[in-house]
């Protein structure tokens, strides 16, 4: 199943109004929005993948519709999936994009191959 184009458009619009350096890459079977060459948010099917940092991930543990990203059995410490039901309104989506942008300021960029 391809990623949700409408959600991608909403994220694209939200990021464009807040930051200048945004690029898009196909990753995780969806599309990722890179800010300052660092992964920020991604769309995977209908869900939003947010890089919010380990501290925020721990704070969100147990929150309905939010789960930590795993690769196989390994939890990815900085990432959460947010289900579509949790990002229906512009305010809800802005909240998650805002958390990802906040972490982006201190996040380390992946090493270029």
UniProtKB/TrEMBL annotation:
SUPFAM superfamilies membership: YgaC/TfoX-N like
Domain of life of the organism encoding this protein: Bacteria
InterPro entries, alphabetized: TfoX_N
Domain TfoX N-terminal residue range list: 17-103
Pfam families the UniProt entry points to: TfoX_N
Protein's name in the database: TfoX N-terminal domain-containing protein
